Amino acid sequence: MAMAVVALGAPVGASAQDAAAPAAAEPAWAKLCNADPATGKELCLTIQEIRADTGQFIASATVRTIDGDAKKSLITAVPPGMLLQPGLRVQIDDGEQQEVKYGICFPNACYGELEINDDFIGKLKAGGKLTLTTLNQQAKPVNFPMTLAGFTKAFDGKGLDQAAQQARQSDLQDALARRAENARQKLIEQQQKESGAN
After folding, report:
1. Could you report the per-residue pLDDT of 24-46, keeping only the tens digit for each?
2. Residue 19 domain boundaries
3. I need a labelling partner for 140 at 20 to 30 A (CA). Which of 3, 43, 78, 132 fits?
């Protein structure tokens, strides 16, 4: 269910204009695991989020697996303000596009879910790029490309526990704060240069 993604990594705010993924120092994919309260089975989410340099959520893709359950899902999240009726498309490299219907929209993102199998997982592991494509309000395609580098390591690896996930989030927030401070300093320096030149 899409709610599992919201609970573990709720994106805030979204911008359809900037669909390019910023360069990240940390691995693009992470695996988070917790016990499913309903069944007691381990629920794992292998996720990549695209965020702007400001930290603003842009899009995400999540592979959801439940221990002992053959059913797997790809959960997608894109900014609100996209056309809902056409849904969105998922494509690995230059392969066939698969249609994903939206399931629910919140103020910060619209979610879709695609049931996937081991063959699809194999394509993710062998692929180089996963692209989510949706249509904006002018019916123009908006692509959200995501690297598949690191997917296999994250998917096959041990999931981050709660403490490791909190540390990862804290590191991300610290990096974003440093970027914001650097940008602020550059702006101040630029303003000082311009006022000194007048």
Report:
1. 456 799 999 988 788 889 899 99
2. 2-159
3. 3
